[in-house]
Amino acid sequence: MKLIWDEIQRAVPLILHGNPTLFSVIGFTLQVALVATAAATVIGLPIGLAIGLGRFRGRQVLRVLANVSLAIPPVLVGTFLFVLFSPRAPLGSLHLIYTRRVVFVAQAILALPFVVALTAAAVQGLPPGLLAQARLLGAGRLQVWALALREARIGVMAAVIAALGVSLSEVAAVVILGGNIYDYNQTLASATLYEVNGGYYADAVAIAIVLIALILILMCGLALLQHQGNGIRLRFRSAA
Amino acid sequence: MTGADHPAPGRVLLRCEHLTVRRGKREVIADVSAELRAGEIVALLGPNGAGKSTLLDALAGALAPAEGRIERHGRVGIALQSPDLARRTVFANVTLALAWWGVPRPERTERAREALRAIGADHLARRRAATLSGGERRRVHLARAIAVRPDVLLLDEPFAGLDAEVRSNLLEDALSALRSSTRATLVVVHDRAEAWALADRLLILLDGRLAASGSPRDLLERPPTVAVARFLGFDGSLDDGHELLLTRPAHVALDPAGAFEARVTRASPLEDGARLELELDQGRVYAVAPLPAPRTGDAVRIRIDGGARFPLRETSAQFETPTYPPATPG
């Protein structure tokens, strides 16, 4: 316990003195988290809605796949993507390995199943009569989807929060694909790992404190938005 | 909808011919032919599982017919049985329905107000849907269907699950709100009293088949089959060896000078009297007696005014018809 307290005491001045590398990592982590979450949301919401509301063959299989993908270890995803993006692989021509871009791609791919599975579950829990009534009163597919998103907004926000959580804290795939290169493509989580591996525990604790603070701030903001609902209502009003 | 022998005023807005509908492999609706004309309010009656909601879904276009065809002359609007509302205000729910229906934005506010007023729900306009009682939800659900002004309005059990007082109030408001010379309305009801209060015409669906069609009075006076009579509350039956006389409690009166001698086998208390089960040599009938009512075991004389007669040889195949719940008193 004393050891941890000592490391925290050494870490705090590192944060307060404003290490430029630390700020660079914070900035990159925020960029990655927001872009990856946004990409996962934009791609995942329609897929989640289609799985949750659609009536096509194979829907159950897709739902199971989305749920299964929540449990796949990120290290496996990272390894698979590494093989896929390696120079002689089908996507090797994209030259993504050990770049900053690959970190965005990896985090978005890891966040995607959370958006898909949780959105599908949220809209499936809606009263079936409401959506059926909308269809029977002439609502088109987009109107039904807008209604479902709005009605299931708490569940959908939970999906986005989960995606953001993954984007902020996942480390294995980022390290495998990006190489965890100092002051280039490190996120707060991968930088923590880097410092621990190097034996710089005070720096690792400093980064961990910043990461936890960032997670707390972002999650509190989203939780407020989730329960207040006003911002969401304004967003979807035009769709109705 | 009307049978071929009951021409109604107004043009035909919806017609189905030899309609058969399946859910999976099960045939739920079989060979139903009927039509619905402008200005009519038609009640679709039938026991649980008769296929009423399935027929409505097919007429609305939500289910494809397996056989037969449906002609629609105008837009069909439907209010499903479950009054699920969006988590918005009542007013927003109605305008949302208008948006789905394709009503231009400038017209929505006035039409929503008008529909809420017509169904007596204008005082609820600013309330959140989640705060409404069951009766209020049903009212808003109906307002939503009326607001879109369909040519054909299909309502699936709009009064289900309400207590007697709330149902009675909603029924009164619905009666005036649903009446329109240009619209045809088909309303599925479970309770015969609701059908009597609302409808110009009844359709009776038994086991997925159209068993009867006609005005409520005609069907009560001359039910076409034993099964339809049983469904309409003809719970008493007397067999004289040649024909079967089916009676409703309204046909049976206690009368010291009556032609029949009977024994009370059961007396169930009612608010203002008792419902009596009366055993006769020819069968069993039911009557409602005012207070002081006879007790179980008493011998009484009764008079039978009316009832429906069926030749025995034509009805023998129908004796196995299940007994449906008795009509709501009155």
Summarize the structure.
Chain A is an all-alpha fold and 240 residues long. Chain A has twelve helices and no strands. In chain A, helix 1 packs across helix 11, helix 3 packs across helix 5 and helix 5 packs antiparallel against helix 8.
What would you note in describing this structure?
The complex is a heterodimer of chains A (240) and B (330). Chain A has 240 residues and is mainly α. Chain A has one domain (2-7, 39-237): MetI-like fold, CATH 1.10.3720. Chain A is built from 12 helices and no strands. The radius of gyration of chain A is 20 Å and the shape is globular. Chain B has helices spanning 52-60, 90-101, 105-118, 134-147, 164-178, 192-198, 216-221, 226-231, 312-315; strands spanning 12-23, 26-37, 41-45, 67-72, 76-79, 152-156, 184-189, 201-206, 209-214, 236-239, 243-247, 252-254, 260-270, 273-279, 283-290, 299-304, 308-311. In chain B, the strands form 3 sheets. Chain B has an 8-stranded antiparallel β-sheet with strand order 12-16-13-14-15-10-11-17. In chain B, a hairpin with a 2-residue loop joins strand 1 (12-23) and strand 2 (26-37). In chain B, helix 4 runs parallel beside helix 5. At the A-B interface, helix 6 and helix 7 of A face strand 5 and helix 2 of B.
